[in-house]
Amino acid sequence: MCVYNRRIMVKQTAEEKITCPPGNIVPDKSGKKSAKWSYILGSIGVLLTVLMAVAIIVFNDRVQELEQYGYIGAFIISVFGGATIIIPVPMLAIVFALGGVMPLPWLVGIAAALGETVGGITIYMTGHGAGKAISSSKHGRIQKAYDKMLDLIERRGAITLFAVTSVVNPFFYPAAFACGALRFGLRKYIIIVLTGKMIKSMTIVYAGYFGIKGLFHAIGIEL
């Protein structure tokens, strides 16, 4: 990297070359800054995930009662459900039930989609900082599954993310984690996740509204 005055406009031909004496080499600190921010984001993501998991365990009874809080309850339970797969959260059951009792079921769907998107951002943050740690993991199964998801996100990022976001499935967490690790654009990530979660939430909500719980049970989804 050469140190020169950017205000001086110099026209060069293809034959001209710029040489820099060793004393003018400026070390590139961008890599260190990037690593630092990745560590900070990853730490925040892990901390938020752990705190939510602890809250679910400690306040389990109140979590079960979030259905009583209507739209706000749908949002809060969806934040929990969207951020962690370690601790089971009755998110689907509560959103389904609220769809059948609230006067504005579409608003329940919006609240749930926003909540899951917020939860998904914490997964993204964790992947942004902890992706390298997983990549260097010696655990064969974890490494193999993670590599497959990384490959899918690299080749079909937006399509893969939308596919695992818009339907009920267990693959959103690893996909969101991989997006963070691969530095998938955050704005694009939020738009795709919110759109997919909106489709998923509206499906669950209106299933509750029309009382078709048996259909979900038939395809193996317990509500």
Give keywords.
0% strand, mainly alpha, 9 helices, single chain, globular, 223 residues
Strand and helix map with partners:
Layout: H1 30-58, H2 60-64, H3 70-83, H4 91-101, H5 105-135, H6 140-165, H7 172-181, H8 186-210, H9 213-218
Helix pairs in contact: 1-5, 3-4, 3-5, 4-5, 4-8, 5-7, 5-8, 6-7, 6-8
Brief sketch in words of this structure:
The protein has one domain.
Describe the protein's architecture and organization.
The chain has 223 residues and is an all-alpha fold. The protein has one domain (30-218). 70% of the residues lie in helices and 0% in strands. It has nine helices and no strands. It has helices spanning 30-58, 60-64, 70-83, 91-101, 105-135, 140-165, 172-181, 186-210, 213-218. α6 packs across α8. It is globular and about 45 Å long. It starts with 29 loop residues before the first helix and ends in a 5-residue tail after the last helix. Residues 1-28 have low confidence and may be disordered.
Looking at the chains present, what oligomeric state does this protein adopt?
single chain
Biggest β-sheet: count, sense, barrel?
Answer: none
Give the amount of beta strand, in percent.
under 5%
How does the overall form come out from the CA principal axes? globular
Number of strands: 0
* Helix and strand element order: HHHHHHHHH
The radius of gyration over CA amounts to 23 Å
